[in-house]
């Protein structure tokens, strides 16, 4: 039974407090409205202490006082209606349509907090998702069911990269009809959101994309619910409709900033850089919703994008993300300044699940060896370039000069590709072999003799 209360104890920012409550539940949805019903907002119970409750308002709280509002407890958690009709639609941070389409009508309502996946029921991720980007597909392959974040910095083209991945991402032709993408934009500007929408329309992929957008001028508290709405849609499509879903979120740093603001409003003891001590568990609750479940065909693969303040990879948000996820893709400001797109810094980047989703039967039998050799050779070339800056390139050995030539070709031909250039995994691996031919054959110590003979000949 719904209960309505007319007197608030305290209003501070987006937080309101009430007392003398009965049978109120944690995470319960709250409807807040003015006495004449001219204003209506949604909130959620975030703390219970005996007969007192703290409610977080998802919306603009200006004008709220302790006596001019009524609060109604809905006796249910925050839920969203779900059906396959969400494909091709655009929603706001609370799951309401903003694309001039109709509301979603369905008998299925799902809790945005998700359903915990039993660790025993988790299926180990296999099979790769082709992004069409050589640096990712060849060297840090995205595996279906994986969590692979992109660590970026202010001003770097992470949004452009995200749009390209959405346009080009695909799985094997056998399952392509069951492939969908959920895109969550958190705290973005209007022109950035319009950029994503127009890119997806022009590429003809809008019908397989579900978008949840929280604008920069929307209430900051909505940013806490956007990723949960997106992941709820992904779980529905994956585990109810047996689809393979790729979730891309930009930018999780905005989510962390909203968490810090809520924590400050609740007067919690701050941790590193003012972030709450529960930042790790909050991020884990999002990231761990990705995966595959034994006995179900669908999968949820997650690519969260984080902008690192001052390009600091030890900042709490990317630092904690690295503990939870299975690798990272790091963007380089230096490569971006030199005209490389996408500016993926491959040396600190990795995919921990890559080894189990590539090779014969998945990509190609030479994938693991080529990837390992490209990593090793590029790392060696970076060291040679640093040495040449000290002693001069004229003093280098012939072998070292070959590594410098390899590095330049690798950055210009392998890392660099056009925004509309979609390379297959075969094209990526063939390009890798072409680059390895620059180096002395005896330096290719990460490749088996059989593969050398097959792809390099005599």
Automatic annotation (TrEMBL):
<feature type="domain" description="ATP synthase A/B type C-terminal">
    <location>
        <begin position="356"/>
        <end position="455"/>
    </location>
</feature>
<keyword id="KW-0406">Ion transport</keyword>
<dbReference type="Pfam" id="PF22919">
    <property type="entry name" value="ATP-synt_VA_C"/>
</dbReference>
<dbReference type="InterPro" id="IPR000194">
    <property type="entry name" value="ATPase_F1/V1/A1_a/bsu_nucl-bd"/>
</dbReference>
<feature type="domain" description="ATPase F1/V1/A1 complex alpha/beta subunit N-terminal">
    <location>
        <begin position="11"/>
        <end position="73"/>
    </location>
</feature>
<dbReference type="Pfam" id="PF02874">
    <property type="entry name" value="ATP-synt_ab_N"/>
</dbReference>
<dbReference type="InterPro" id="IPR027417">
    <property type="entry name" value="P-loop_NTPase"/>
</dbReference>
<feature type="domain" description="ATPase F1/V1/A1 complex alpha/beta subunit nucleotide-binding">
    <location>
        <begin position="132"/>
        <end position="351"/>
    </location>
</feature>
<dbReference type="InterPro" id="IPR020003">
    <property type="entry name" value="ATPase_a/bsu_AS"/>
</dbReference>
<dbReference type="InterPro" id="IPR004100">
    <property type="entry name" value="ATPase_F1/V1/A1_a/bsu_N"/>
</dbReference>
<dbReference type="Pfam" id="PF00006">
    <property type="entry name" value="ATP-synt_ab"/>
</dbReference>
<keyword id="KW-0813">Transport</keyword>
<comment type="similarity">
    <text>Belongs to the ATPase alpha/beta chains family.</text>
</comment>
<dbReference type="InterPro" id="IPR055190">
    <property type="entry name" value="ATP-synt_VA_C"/>
</dbReference>
<keyword id="KW-0066">ATP synthesis</keyword>
<dbReference type="InterPro" id="IPR022879">
    <property type="entry name" value="V-ATPase_su_B/beta"/>
</dbReference>
<comment type="function">
    <text>Produces ATP from ADP in the presence of a proton gradient across the membrane. The V-type beta chain is a regulatory subunit.</text>
</comment>
<protein>
    <recommendedName>
        <fullName>V-type ATP synthase beta chain</fullName>
    </recommendedName>
</protein>
<keyword id="KW-0375">Hydrogen ion transport</keyword>
């Amino acid at each position: 039974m719904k209960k309505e209360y007319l007197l608030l104890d305290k209003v501070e920012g987006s937080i309101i407090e009430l007392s003398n409550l009965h049978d109120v539940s944690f995470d319960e949805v709250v409807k807040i409205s003015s006495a004449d019903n001219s204003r209506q907002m949604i909130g959620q119970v975030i703390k219970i202490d005996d007969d007192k409750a703290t409610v977080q308002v998802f919306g603009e709280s200006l004008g709220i006082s302790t006596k001019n509002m009524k609060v109604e407890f809905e006796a249910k958690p925050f839920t969203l209606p779900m059906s396959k009709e969400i494909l091709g639609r655009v929603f706001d941070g609370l799951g309401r349509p903003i694309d001039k389409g109709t509301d979603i009508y369905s008998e299925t309502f799902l809790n945005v907090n998700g359903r915990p996946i039993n660790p025993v029921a988790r299926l180990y991720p296999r099979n790769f998702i082709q992004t069409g980007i050589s640096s990712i597909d060849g060297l840090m392959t995205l595996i279906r069911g994986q969590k692979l974040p992109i660590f970026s910095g202010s001003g770097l083209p992470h949004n452009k990269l995200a749009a390209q991945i959405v346009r080009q991402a695909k799985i094997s032709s056998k399952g392509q009809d069951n492939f969908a993408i959920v895109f969550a934009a958190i705290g973005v500007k209007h022109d950035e959101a319009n950029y994503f929408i127009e890119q997806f329309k022009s590429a003809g992929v809008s019908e397989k994309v579900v978008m949840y957008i929280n604008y920069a001028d929307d209430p900051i508290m909505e940013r806490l619910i956007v990723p949960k709405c997106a992941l709820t849609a992904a779980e529905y499509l994956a585990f109810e409709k047996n689809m393979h879903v790729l979730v891309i979120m930009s930018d999780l740093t905005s989510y962390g900033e909203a968490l810090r603001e809520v924590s400050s409003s609740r007067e919690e003891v701050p941790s590193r850089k003012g972030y709450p001590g529960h930042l790790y568990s909050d991020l884990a609750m999002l990231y761990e919703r990705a995966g595959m479940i034994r006995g179900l065909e669908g999968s949820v693969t997650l690519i969260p994008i984080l902008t690192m303040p001052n390009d600091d990879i030890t900042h709490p948000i990317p630092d904690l993300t690295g503990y939870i996820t299975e690798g990272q893709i790091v963007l380089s400001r230096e490569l971006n300044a030199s005209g490389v797109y996408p500016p993926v810094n491959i040396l600190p980047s990795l995919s921990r699940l890559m080894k189990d989703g590539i090779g014969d039967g998945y990509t190609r039998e030479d994938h693991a060896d080529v990837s390992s050799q490209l990593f090793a050779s590029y790392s060696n070339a970076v060291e040679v370039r640093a040495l040449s800056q000290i002693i001069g390139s004229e003093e280098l050995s012939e072998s070292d000069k070959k590594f410098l030539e390899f590095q330049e070709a690798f950055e210009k031909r392998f890392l660099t590709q056009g925004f509309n250039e979609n390379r297959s995994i075969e094209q990526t691996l063939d390009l890798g072999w072409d680059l390895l031919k620059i180096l002395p054959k005896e330096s290719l110590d990460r490749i088996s003799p059989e593969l050398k003979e097959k792809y390099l000949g005599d």
